[in-house]
Design a protein that fits this description.
Layout lengths: L2 E3 L8 H5 L5 E3 L4 E3 L9 H5 L5 E3 L1
Length: 56
């Protein structure tokens, strides 16, 4: 399953720095996950302090 960052994102950079394939980028008001590059490892989910990363 693919992951998605929702509007609860506070842009803390925790997920971006944890991603092993660098598929999380600044999308303006929130971070976004490049679905084509994401390997669905879930590393970002565990570090998000506001639970903004969910499975689609």
């Amino acid at each position: 399953m693919a992951y998605q960052i929702n509007s609860a994102c506070i842009k803390c950079t925790a997920c971006e720095s944890e991603c092993p394939v660098n598929c999380i980028k600044d999308g303006g008001s929130i971070y976004v996950i490049d679905q084509g590059a994401c390997i669905n490892c879930g590393a970002c989910v565990g570090v998000c302090p506001v639970d903004a990363i969910v499975q689609k």
